[in-house]
């Protein structure tokens, strides 16, 4: 497709969702994905109820995929199992789906709506005087193709080379995450809980900055990962592979791991969070997902926010094309702020606070001994509060803010 209405750069969650919703609105869409499906992506493969809703809205078929009833949180040996909360909009279940399968299937849903998906095609922006004029598509062994779409969706992930060329930058005073994951065989792969460990210790029992997770895939394998947020004391010198090794070693008998259980060596990636990257749109482009740092700092979730921002961007681009007025794109960044800015601000402050070992200890000590407090924390961290709970969330935000205020941290703004 030479001159589609919209060219989408990247066929991950953000790009596929944007492509799906644009095509549904009758626009001609070309999604350029530089890799071939099924493609590997460093990810925990965990889907919360928010992500499930987006996938259900796009007609994703969960038959044969592993469903998740809630979260099992550990701090040291203290353990708490919590079901997903009931919610008026979101389902009370999650899932774990390998990204290699998930992304291929969501791209196929976009294709079913009429989007053209070009794999093995890397996109490069052509820029004149700071303005995006066209896009070059490069395929191995083929001549470059120049595409001149009306609009471009940037959905090229956490490194976002395309976006950087257009002047997008990440706020260095905002937190970001680093994480690594691998796959292991386990006799308990059909466990119905996501498991997280808030206190990872090395062989000598010394606390390490970071967290670990086990997300069961239900097909004989489990996804084990570990990560750290840049606000954690000691994160700079931390090797996430060593963190993962320590975490895997510390796992109890439940997962039944042996020396030979690892089926795929770990790979890692970055998690740009708290809407830390901007600008989020230009005269003829809009950026979504990891490229704008949409990961939720509370829980490292980014798949849902890529779907949500992709869907939102599609609405504004369709509007800009229908009205012939590119200025409506301003509404995209405004709506993002209206919906997420307060939440992200508190999440940002929260990770700054728990980045301090003493504060982390206090939070986990108090939290893990109170089921209501942890159930509430799960709701907040997975962004599952009801609109009428806003008041409650405001009070909670206020409490966190008071704690933050007494916590000296030059990074907190
Ligand atoms: C170790 C780890 C664990 C994680 N675990 C979870 C989890 O359990 N749950 C969760 O919700 N989130 C998790 N995340 C975050 C989640 O993976 C991301 O937030 C999500 O993938 C963002 O989607 P995206 O579409 O913005 O970017 P991506 O998924 O990165 O997709 C971008 C796509 O663009 C393609 N691309 C890049 N450049 C170009 C180009 N120039 N031309 C064409 N194509 C291009 C890439 O090949 C890629 O397919 C995790 C992240 C990491 C690193």
Describe the 3D structure:
The chain is an alpha+beta fold and 413 residues long. It has three domains: 208 residues, FAD/NAD(P)-binding domain (3-Layer(bba) Sandwich), CATH 3.50.50.60; 97 residues; 50 residues, no CATH class. Helix content is 33%, strand content 25%. The chain is built from ten helices and 21 strands. A seven-stranded mixed sheet has the order 6-5-15-16-17-14-18, with helices on both faces. Strands 8-2-1-12-21-20 form a six-stranded mixed sheet, covered by helices on one side. Strands 3-7-4 form a three-stranded antiparallel sheet. Helix 2 crosses helix 6 and helix 7 crosses helix 10. It is globular and about 60 Å long. It starts with 5 loop residues before the first strand and ends in an 8-residue tail after the last helix. The C terminus is likely disordered. The site of flavin-adenine dinucleotide has 43 residues, from helix 1, strand 2, strand 9, helix 4 and strand 14.
Characteristic key phrases:
about 425 residues; alpha+beta; FAD/NAD(P)-binding domain; 3 domains; 7-stranded mixed beta sheet; 21 strands; about 35% helix; globular; disordered C terminus
């Amino acid at each position: 497709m030479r001159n589609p209405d919209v060219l989408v750069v990247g066929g991950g969650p953000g790009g596929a969702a944007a492509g799906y919703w644009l095509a549904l609105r009758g626009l001609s869409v070309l999604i350029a994905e530089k890799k071939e499906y099924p493609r590997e992506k460093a990810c925990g493969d965990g889907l919360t109820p928010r992500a499930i809703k987006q996938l259900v809205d796009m007609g994703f078929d969960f038959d044969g995929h592993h469903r998740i009833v809630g979260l099992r949180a550990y701090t040291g040996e203290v353990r708490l199992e919590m079901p997903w909360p009931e919610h008026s909009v979101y389902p009370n279940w999650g899932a774990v789906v390998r990204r290699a399968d998930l992304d291929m299937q969501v791209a196929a849903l976009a294709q079913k709506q009429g989007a053209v998906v070009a794999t093995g095609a890397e996109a490069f922006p052509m820029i004149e005087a700071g303005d995006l004029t066209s896009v070059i598509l490069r395929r191995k062994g083929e001549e470059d193709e120049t595409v001149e779409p009306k609009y471009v969706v940037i959905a090229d992930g956490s490194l976002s080379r395309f976006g950087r060329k257009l002047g997008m930058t990440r706020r260095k005073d905002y937190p970001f995450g680093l994480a690594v994951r691998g796959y292991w065989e386990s006799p308990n792969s059909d466990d119905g809980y996501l498991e997280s460990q808030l206190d990872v210790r090395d062989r000598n029992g010394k606390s390490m900055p970071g967290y670990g997770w086990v997300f069961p895939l239900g097909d004989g394998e489990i996804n084990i990962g570990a990560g750290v947020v840049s606000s954690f004391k000691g994160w700079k010198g931390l090797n996430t592979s060593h963190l993962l090794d320590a975490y895997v070693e510390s796992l109890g008998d439940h997962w039944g791991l042996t020396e030979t259980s690892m089926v795929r060596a770990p790979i890692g990636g970055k998690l740009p969070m708290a809407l830390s990257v901007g600008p989020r749109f230009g005269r003829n482009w809009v950026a979504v997902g990891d490229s704008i740092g949409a990961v939720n700092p509370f829980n490292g979730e980014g798949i849902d926010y890529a779907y949500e921002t992709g869907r939102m961007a599609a609405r504004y681009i369709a509007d800009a094309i229908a009205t012939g007025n590119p200025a409506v794109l301003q509404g995209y960044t405004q709506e993002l702020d209206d919906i997420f800015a307060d939440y992200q601000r508190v999440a940002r402050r929260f990770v700054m606070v728990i980045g301090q070992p003493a504060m982390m200890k206090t939070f986990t000590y108090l939290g893990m001994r109170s089921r209501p407090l942890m159930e509430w924390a799960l709701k907040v961290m997975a962004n599952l509060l009801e609109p009428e709970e806003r008041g409650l969330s405001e009070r909670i935000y206020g409490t966190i803010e008071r704690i933050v205020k007494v916590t000296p941290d030059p990074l907190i703004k």
